[in-house]
TrEMBL record:
Matches recorded under InterPro entries: EFG_III/V, Impact, Impact_N, Impact_N_sf, Impact_YigZ-like, Ribosomal_Su5_D2-typ_SF, UPF0029_Impact_C, UPF0029_Impact_CS
Impact N-terminal domain segment(s): 20-121
Span of domain UPF0029: 140-194
GO process terms (BP): regulation of translational initiation
Gene3D superfamilies: Impact, N-terminal domain
Pfam families referenced in this protein's UniProt entry, alphabetically: DUF1949, Impact_N
The protein's name in its UniProt record: YigZ family protein
One GO cellular component, as annotated: cytoplasm
Length: 213
């Protein structure tokens, strides 16, 4: 799993007009090629009467799958500009469809490239971009007498407490950045004179907004 990456927050859409042609940009997260293709198919079904439904997507940890489709526009003037905006923004697991209703005025190759690139940018802005960072939840079991101290120390150091359970003892589950787990283990040992019991859980992604939405 990647320690961090950027993707879209979720679904977004934007409408704009260029030389009487109406464009509608649709964006969503797609973690597999199948999900991306299903999203594209849904938009094409919705806009079956559109002149074009051009699309592109990037999927995979290493951007293994990259596809662009001009859907009848001149080769390289629609799908590729959309794909380039996704890649330039550094996004993973993202699909974009830009629907066009022709308004009677031809845009030319350069105009089409700019129009579809603008659609991708506006759609991504509407969806919003997030950064996903990998964290390891670490369950820290301590006596009640240490609860206040641990909670304060963790918050002072910027740790996110995922949950707190109260039983025979208190169990605080703190999120530690991937690769830094031993740091928290050492601090917990110091704060409790070695009495805290720690256990790691499966890594999880924590999302933070970058822009848009």
């Amino acid at each position: 799993m990647l320690e961090q990456y950027r993707t879209v927050n979720g679904y977004g859409e934007a409408v704009y007009e260029i030389e009487k042609s109406r464009f509608i940009a649709y964006v969503d997260r797609a973690e597999t090629p199948e999900a991306a293709q299903a999203f594209i198919a849904a938009i094409r079904k919705k806009h079956w009467d559109a002149t074009h439904n051009c699309a592109a997507y990037v999927c995979g940890e290493r951007d293994e799958t990259q596809k662009a489709d001009d859907d009848g526009e001149p080769s390289g003037t629609a799908g590729k500009p959309i794909l380039e905006v996704i890649k330039k923004t550094g996004l993973k697991d993202t699909v974009v469809v830009v629907t066009r209703y022709f308004g009677g005025i031809k845009l030319g190759a350069g105009g089409l490239i700019r129009a579809y690139g603008k659609g991708a940018s506006l759609g991504l802005e509407a969806a919003g971009v997030i950064e996903r960072r990998l964290f390891t939840p670490i369950a820290i079991e301590i006596d009640y007498a240490l609860y206040g101290k641990f909670e304060q120390e963790l918050r002072l150091r910027g740790y996110r407490i995922q949950e707190t359970q109260f039983g025979a003892a208190v169990t605080l589950t703190a999120l530690e950045e991937a690769g830094q787990e031993e740091r928290l283990e050492r601090m917990a040992a110091d704060w409790s004179s070695g009495c805290a019991e720690l256990s790691r859980r499966g890594a999880v992604y924590v999302d933070s907004r970058v822009n848009g939405g």
